[in-house]
Amino acid sequence: MESKFEKKIEQPSEESISPENLGSIWGDFKQFLKKLLDIRNDTDKSGTIQDVKDSISMQGHTAWILVFSILIASIGLNVSSTAVVIGAMLISPLMGPILGVGMSIGINDIDTLRRSLVNLGVMVGLSLLTSVAFFSIPLFQDLTPELKARTAPDVRDVFIAIAGGLALIIALSRRSKQTNTIAGVAIATALMPPLCTAGYGIAIGNLEYFFGAMFLFTINTIFIALATFIIVKFLRFPMVKYINSAKRKRIAQLATFISILIFGYSIYTFYGLYKKDQFIDTANAFIKEMKSNDISIIDEEDENIDYENKSIKLILYGKKLDENELNKWRSKLIAYGLTDTRLNIQQGSDDSDLRAEVQNLSDLYARNQQIISSRDEKIRQSEDKIKVLEAELSKHYKVPFSQLSKEVKINYEGLKTLKFSNLISTNFESTDTISVFTTSWYDSIPNKDAKEIKLKEFLKTRLELDTLKIIRE
């Protein structure tokens, strides 16, 4: 009989897992995803368009803010301070004209596009002039790691620019603007450091740094504008209408052409950066395998892997590779997919004997260091013993003899010398220590015995001793 406390476990019926119920669950899941990921709700299209237009201008206070932010970023790059660079990016108005380009193409607004491009050019010009002026000072022309890192882009910069642009325009399109997102995008996309580095390249006359930094800035700019264009189209921002239908058609065609051009260049740039990063990673893997085969390589620099010329330059030391070994490594390039890559290996004469001699000297130095360490340990132990003995001696030597001798000299003019020692005696049942003073008097001094009795009483009182002994020489 079933107890009232027992629960009956029902088995699911066939009806509970029917296709209709599965369809309902799938529909609920799709509805959940739609609510979770939909960005069309709470979109302020007219407000977003106006905000972007207001941020395009690079005149007046905006221009000065840009100049000062570029100056701060240049200082941060010069001292390799990430915190200073981040602070400069937070106050920089660089993003306005770039968003204007992407939005104006998306809504066919040729006037805003023209205004955005003009202000973008002004922005770049002001930034370069400021950074060139700063880095023209010889004190600030050292190449720091922060500057070096902005001289060439890679494929990750593309992903950062796309993700940053998407996040920025989505945040701006809300009725309640997400300022923390806008600030974060300004930091992540890092538009200012490349411009500062380009100015540094001009200031020191290094066009390679200038073009590399400007290429990085251009990539960031294009992909942020592209992300803005995509979101504007996705959210179906209202298109600008023109009274003249023929003019509207021409503008739409121009905007479409520019969009295709930018999109095509973006794909081409992304593919080129991807292939370059892939080549560098593969070359580094090849070099790593060479090292694992006990081949010593020195002077490893980024410039030794040349993607444009498809070459790898290596400088070897130690055991010299013969022609067969060199051919073996060149053939391995094919296995790594580096078919058209030239392996340029530079090596000197075989210095194995020299290296063996250096190793012997190193071993000898290590042994000598062990001997020295052992001697130092013995010296330290001896010093510790001396300290222990001195401490033990100080327990018995309690007489302030220096001060006492001065007092005795004043009171006993006929005393020639005074000596002190502790006499340790034993009767084999106990041990005692007696203070012993040895005196010598000038011959002309009378009553020496009486003076010594008086001296003994003085010493007992002065030293607070019950017993002491005086011996005359």
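Above is the first protein from milestone M3; the second protein from the same milestone is given next.
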Amino acid sequence: MKFYIETYGCSANRNDSEIMIALLLKEGFELCNNYNDADLIILNTCSVKQATISRMCERMKLFSQTKKPLIIAGCLTKVRKDLIEKFAPNASLISPSSIDKIVDVAKTTINNKKVEFLNGNANKAILPSFRFNKIIEIVQIAEGCLSNCTFCATKIARGNIKSFRIGDIKRKIENAINSGAKEIWITSQDNSAYGRDIGTNLIELLEEILKIEGKFWIRVGMMNPLHFKKLEVEKLAELFNNEKVFKFLHVPVQSGSNKVLNDMQRGYTVEEFLEFVEIFRKIVKNITIATDIIVGYPTETEKDFEKTLELIKELKPDVVNISRFSAIKGTKAYNLKKLNSKILKERSKELTNLVRKISFEKNKKWIGWKGEVLIDEKVKNGFIARNIYYKPIFIKEGELGTFKEVKIKYAYPNFLSTVKIN
């Protein structure tokens, strides 16, 4: 039986698809690249923004019209089940925490029977993965989170944090490296909260991972500033100086206004966020800083937005992921009075222009840099490589999965290059 899978959302969702694929392949199913050729369709959904949810509705409607057996997976199964019932009433459902049941769901669904698995306890650190990118292994270290942000549906979709055991995570990474992986993504809904439920923490996890032999680089994923308070930040930063760890820190601040952060129930102040970043910058030379900003939260005034602009000017991050506020049903912020869409558009444009300018200025400082990179992605007319600072570098020639010495000659707002790009 052939199956087609379509995936949306974060790296954790991508890994959920990789796990489901591996389990289905093991059972004798065959993966295909076109839903028209499939006997079974799986849609792994995301619900992070309203625009994304609308896209999910379009895909559900399309796949339902094929009359083929359909499985809806991912966060939408928990966040907006009502929409699934509207656009794909005959589809089977499987939640992120139940993906270890995908074979049972697939076999039942193919026989034109609807089934739902919405309350599971899958240990993703011991499940096999099919790597979309043969060089990159995504390893989920936990499921769920400890925060209660007013705008986010993560808690609805994935529940309270469930951390996976260090030994299981370490073995998964070892197996990945032995099978050719060179880049390891440590991911979850909030890496800084890892281990709080099982008596350990991210520092202890990283110390064990760094004992693994072989040449590979580790990308530590997003960490909420709230849970930095429970960690020895200096000790964590020192681990980023290890030759196997990307000098890359993703800490989402979301707003430059303490009033808005309080309204969002983020649990930290702008000053605390800056203190954490400063510790990393002091200990890890030239570290790449990434953050997230939500523009137009319902209580955000013009003065609040100005504070966000001031923060970005002071922080000068390398990467900023900008999102306009999106009201997700079921969240605390859903019923708040929304700002005018024109205001959101204007503020988003102003912030985007500022970020682009800062990113370009910072990237220009890398011109002339020489050093080792890992080629981790094939793109049109060449490859994307990463240096140890996780900077994306376009190169014309190379081999996927190899390390190579390069010299950066050109800089652009979003990437670096060894050749001129027209």
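Note on the second protein: The first strand starts at residue 2 and ends at 7.
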